[in-house]
Design brief:
- The protein is an alpha+beta fold and 183 residues long.
- The protein has a single domain, classed as 3-Layer(aba) Sandwich (Glutaredoxin).
- The protein has 4 helices and 10 strands, in the order E-E-E-E-H-E-H-E-H-E-E-E-H-E.
- The protein has helices at 50-66, 87-96, 110-115, 152-161; strands at 3-5, 20-23, 28-30, 39-44, 71-76, 103-105, 119-120, 122-127, 132-135, 174-177.
- It has a 7-stranded mixed β-sheet, covered by helices on one side.
Length: 183
């Protein structure tokens, strides 16, 4: 496990990038399946990472709180051959954690590269027009077992939905590095 910090490839106002990925429900999803709400939260996550496991309950609670207003999608860009990864393991992970939002496999890793995702979790918050408004941490508890004092993503979603300004201060996410497919 290599602790990795997210970095900004997409900047504020950049558009969400189109994709066509298969979900754990066997359906194909594109970016436009998530339009019609007040925003979109794209979560680059995986199955084995202790940082994702420490945050998944928070992500599920965010969905329960905000899922009626904004769309959520989890994308797994890890090498599907990496231990604990791949579609079969994703199905188990999603079911065991009661994930009610789509969880998609980026088996070519094109989406992670295009978005500049580097770690898991690596969240990207877009407005209703799919413009990036925040890329960064879910909260300030960056190590498993820590208690959050700042609920960064919840506050940013609330500000976006209420039409308030979102801080441009970089608050990077940290987690395991994405497991890239070796050539």
């Amino acid at each position: 496990m290599t602790l990795t910090q997210s970095f900004e490839k997409l900047g504020g106002g950049d558009k969400a990038l189109e994709f066509s990925l298969k979900g754990v429900d066997e359906k194909m999803y594109s970016l436009f399946d998530f339009q019609g709400k007040e925003g979109l939260l794209v979560l680059f996550i995986c199955n084995h990472c202790p940082y994702v496991k420490a945050k998944i309950d928070v992500m599920v609670k965010l969905y329960e709180k905000w899922g009626a207003k904004i769309a959520f999608v989890g994308i797994n860009s890890n090498d599907p051959e990496y231990e604990g990864e791949g579609m079969d393991n994703m199905k188990v992970f999603a079911r065991e954690r009661n994930m009610q939002f789509p969880y998609l496999l980026d088996d070519t890793q094109e989406m992670a590269k295009a978005y500049g995702a580097t770690c898991t979790p690596d969240p990207f918050l877009f407005d209703k027009d799919f413009n990036l408004v925040f890329h960064g941490r879910i909260d300030d508890a960056l190590e498993p077992g820590q208690e959050a004092e700042e609920n960064t993503m919840d506050e940013n979603i609330m500000n976006m939905v209420e039409g308030k300004e979102i801080s441009k201060e970089l608050k990077p996410s940290m987690g395991c590095s994405i497991k890239w497919i070796s050539s």
